Amino acid sequence: MIDLKEVVKIYQTDEVETFALNKLSLKIDQGEFTSIMGPSGCGKSTLLNIIGLIDMPTEGTYQFDGKIVNQFGEKQKADVRKENIGFVFQNFNLLDELPVYDNVELPLIYTSLSAKERKEKVLNVLSKLDIIHRKKHLPKQLSGGQQQRVAIARAIVNHPKILLADEPTGNLDSENGKEVMKILTDLNEEGTTIVMVTHSARDANYGSKIIHLFDGKMITENILKNL
Amino acid sequence: MIDLKEVVKIYQTDEVETFALNKLSLKIDQGEFTSIMGPSGCGKSTLLNIIGLIDMPTEGTYQFDGKIVNQFGEKQKADVRKENIGFVFQNFNLLDELPVYDNVELPLIYTSLSAKERKEKVLNVLSKLDIIHRKKHLPKQLSGGQQQRVAIARAIVNHPKILLADEPTGNLDSENGKEVMKILTDLNEEGTTIVMVTHSARDANYGSKIIHLFDGKMITENILKNL
Ligand SMILES: Nc1ncnc2c1ncn2[C@@H]1O[C@H](COP(=O)(O)OP(=O)(O)OP(=O)(O)O)[C@@H](O)[C@H]1O
Ligand SMILES: Nc1ncnc2c1ncn2[C@@H]1O[C@H](COP(=O)(O)OP(=O)(O)OP(=O)(O)O)[C@@H](O)[C@H]1O
Ligand SMILES: [Mg+2]
Ligand SMILES: [Mg+2]
After folding, report:
1. Are strands A2-12 and A59-64 parallel, antiparallel or unpaired?
2. Can you tell me whether residue A168 is helix, strand or coil?
3. Phi and psi (nearest 5°) for A53?
4. What digits encode the pLDDT tens for the residues A133-152?
């Protein structure tokens, strides 16, 4: 499903050239649950952004479902994202001017679902994340953990084939954290491919494979379970 | 030093009235290290914002250094903040248009320090947080954990009397997290009063007192150490 070969990502500022990813190769099969760990600044979010077609590699090839996506134009990339990928951003990226309900409904707007069907899905996922009582609030009227749960709700409301989650429990207490991990595990058992960045060793162990990054390179890859 | 009596904070939106804090009383002495824990949405950030004079209570009294601050005007509140308080916000609140160096220098601008003295303090704190190689980057050119470390550097560069830290290690790997907790402990041993919100039981144990909030109330207060 996902096949990265010798991917390099270089950020250039006036003073500094950073190899955020440095000849990284990685394969992820349909239905796998892969955890990514590593020190702050080692390239985890950069890797997720490339897998999610939000950012493009500087060198190397990226094949998604057998198609080389490096050559894709903006429109093609947007279509692949909409049809396949749910993303929980590390900084949430909620739209400040829309209430919680509308933020979560966004991924459904491009589909052929009726308003009634959309409403059912939105309310269902908001109650799963224990945040339905905040559906009319604006993001800045929420606590940090509540914003994170809204971001997770938006990412999974449309049952994506692939869920990319960047530290999904970083702002949550252990109870809410466990709830979120249970939701991710259930989705994975239903067939969703999951790639999760985390600093929590406990959460990483929910995955079937853990990879460790350091300075843009993959230093270990542990297979945890026989699926 | 800090004396909150029956403090209530109510947020009102069109549909919902939330008691973010509900008759909460709390005393914090000079030089103490208090940890605050509790589920997402229970009022931790609201409590820090009130202690830091960023937000005002709806009811109840707040005495800071023996003075009742509820009646303070904006200018008086700003002076108390500048002279006494360093704040690590949960969402960092870095200024996007300023490079890292300038963000960290901000609290020093209001002081009588020369540019040379300011430079020494800024570079010193950036190297302590292992982020000096990013001094010319803009906040959006940093990883999540790097932004958090810049936010911590800015909060401590001026050696505040009180440090309010809202989940200071939430976006950090365990190595960087330990470094930050060591810096906070050193500051506390030098006399800085610290109030830290955290979801990590391990980090909470660095404090001399842990309080647990639930639905805006303090449900337990554990004294950990004989100072
Ligand atoms: N501006 C606002 N308007 C309305 N409600 C608000 C506002 N800010 C916060 N709240 C509500 O007040 C409650 C307390 O929020 P607070 O940010 O203090 O929680 P917290 O304990 O810091 O949670 P977290 O661990 O998720 O950061 C939440 O239920 C939140 O929805
Ligand atoms: N727009 C940018 N311009 C320049 N450098 C950047 C940019 N974005 C990221 N970087 C650099 O690329 C490196 C990798 O960043 P990335 O966000 O992938 O780290 P991360 O592993 O997710 O870290 P964290 O755990 O702190 O979130 C970092 O050193 C960062 O400073
Ligand atoms: Mg990151
Ligand atoms: Mg908070």
Report:
1. antiparallel
2. coil
3. 55, 30
4. 999 999 999 999 999 999 99
Q: What is each CA distance from B108 to A172, A199, A214, B62, B117, in whole angstroms?
A: 33, 33, 35, 27, 10
Going by alpha carbons, the residue nearest to atom 27 of ligand 2 is B144
pLDDT tens for each residue of B7-62: 999 999 988 899 999 999 999 999 999 999 999 999 999 999 999 999 999 999 99
Query: What pairing do the DSSP bridges indicate for beta strands B33-37 and B209-214?
Result: parallel
With 0-12 CB in 10 A as exposed, 13-18 as middle and 19+ as buried, what is B178?
Answer: middle
Structure tokens at B182: 């060591």
CA–CA dist B21, B23 (Å, integer): 7
Mean pLDDT for chain A overall? 95
Q: How far is CA B187 from CA A132, A153, B27, B180, B190, in A?
A: 41, 39, 20, 11, 5
Size of interface A-B (CB pairs under 8 A): 92
Ligand 2 site residues, Cβ closer than 6 angstroms: A 11, 13, 18, 20, 38, 40-46, 90; B 134, 141-146, 171
Question: The dihedral of CA B96, B165, A18, A23: what is its sign?
Answer: negative
Instruction: Give the model's pLDDT for residue B224.
Output: 86
